[in-house]
Task: inverse folding
């Protein structure tokens, strides 16, 4: 498989030892995992928090160990493509070095069976927007030795570039997972429950229609919070807990991933971040500093989440009883020039549309009143981020 490393190349070749220590502690120390979870949840009352607080690294209805008692799951899988390699387990323990964690994280990103995908069998990949790579690998799907298909992180969070190489972290905005689900359940294609649109997924089980755009994972280390609705305060251990609990809850049987897999995935994503962009044109930078920098940092960092009524975009996801916090996080603009859908709705297709005073999609009014010269300077500057 060929992969593009457009932006992350060479960044942080050697990682600070305290970050590695966080990984060992995450794996070995249950109290640390628990404390990380508790500290990271912004709204302990929403359902996302309650489900985790009830069972993660804590005695629960699942027994004195809660989810920790689940058996470790490391199935043999192979990519779903016409000439697949033999079945092989994704995980074998690796040393605690940057290179070994990156290699394991990359293997897991492209190979870990994250969620069953019975709906994908026998469908036309083009019809539902699944990518197909140069080897004929369909949509990042993997097949288990039991014949089950599963989604990997790469199904949603990687997309081919113009040369057909997969870019890890960049959302696959063509994937119409809702239509695929509707097809599987034999629902009409326009059933509102599954009509998310390409690049969107309703990740909640709150019974409400509040799909969100698949986010760009490349800048995840710059995000103050995870999830559009800002459900989780972000740092490396919190990201590992977030991925660990995703993999526990996404699999139908009681099972948990090997902890080093959860941490290596977090590690890999943490180090995908684009290196800070060059300064760019002073005119564009000056407009950005005046109009945008109150929330978005020019260096990819971000400010605090913004109340729903201030940002003014569709409030459904921000009010979700499952993930809602009453605010949307400010997304990092690192790598924004390559994104093809913007805002948590994914409804804005380009930076030019975002700043267009006549845009149809409501909210995020910042920069819409710029004069033509300032707008052009800002757009040129943003395209290089
Ligand atoms: C079916 C598509 C899909 C798959 C498969 C998937 N994700 Fe996601 N992911 C999403 C969507 C949609 C969101 C946004 C959720 C939200 O904001 O509430 C998301 C959010 C995230 C976030 C938070 C990022 C941020 O900036 O807020 C991380 C981290 C993440 N996913 C990692 C993973 C990993 C690791 C895997 C594989 C184990 C994975 N995802 C598999 C669709 C997917
Ligand atoms: C008051 C704080 C604030 C200001 C000022 C602000 N933004 Fe934002 N921005 C946000 C929030 C919050 C979001 C997420 C909104 C959502 O998803 O509904 C966002 C989203 C974006 C996105 C979409 C990113 C993505 O990955 O979807 C872009 C691009 C963006 N802003 C650019 C700008 C630019 C350019 C300016 C200046 C002209 C600006 N913003 C000013 C708060 C702000």
Result:
């Amino acid at each position: 498989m060929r992969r593009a490393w457009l932006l992350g190349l060479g960044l942080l070749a050697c990682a600070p030892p305290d970050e590695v220590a966080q990984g060992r502690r995450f794996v070995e120390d249950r109290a640390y995992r628990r404390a990380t979870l508790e500290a990271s949840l912004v709204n302990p009352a929403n359902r996302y928090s309650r489900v985790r607080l009830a069972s993660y690294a804590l005695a629960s209805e699942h027994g004195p160990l809660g989810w920790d008692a689940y058996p470790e799951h490391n199935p043999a899988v192979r990519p779903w493509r016409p000439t697949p390699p033999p079945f092989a387990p994704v995980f074998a323990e690796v040393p605690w070095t940057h290179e070994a964690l990156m290699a394991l994280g990359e293997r897991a990103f492209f190979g870990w069976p994250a969620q069953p995908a019975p709906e994908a069998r026998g469908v036309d990949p083009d019809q539902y927007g699944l990518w197909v790579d140069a080897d004929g690998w369909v949509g990042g799907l993997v097949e288990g030795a039991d014949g089950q298909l599963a989604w990997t992180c790469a199904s949603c969070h990687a997309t081919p570039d113009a040369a057909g190489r997969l870019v890890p972290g960049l959302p696959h905005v063509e994937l119409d997972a809702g239509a695929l689900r509707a097809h599987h359940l034999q629902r009409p294609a326009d059933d509102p429950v599954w009509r998310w649109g390409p690049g969107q997924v309703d990740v909640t089980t709150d019974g409400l229609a509040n799909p969100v755009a698949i986010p760009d994972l490349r800048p995840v280390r710059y995000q103050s919070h995870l999830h559009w609705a800002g459900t989780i305060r972000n740092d490396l251990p919190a990201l590992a807990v977030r991925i660990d609990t995703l993999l526990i809850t996404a699999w139908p049987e009681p099972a948990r991933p090997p902890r080093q897999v959860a941490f290596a995935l977090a590690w890999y994503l943490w180090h995908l971040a684009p290196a800070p962009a060059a300064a760019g044109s002073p005119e564009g930078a000056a407009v950005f500093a005046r109009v945008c920098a109150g929330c978005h940092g020019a260096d990819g960092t971000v400010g605090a989440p913004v109340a729903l009524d201030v940002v003014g975009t569709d409030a459904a996801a921000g009010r979700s009883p499952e993930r809602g916090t009453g605010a949307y996080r400010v997304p990092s603009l690192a790598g924004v020039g390559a994104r093809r859908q913007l805002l948590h709705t994914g409804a804005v297709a380009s930076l030019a549309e975002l700043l267009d005073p006549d845009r149809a999609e409501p909210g995020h009014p910042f920069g819409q009143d710029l004069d033509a010269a300032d707008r052009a300077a800002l757009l040129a500057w943003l395209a290089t981020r």
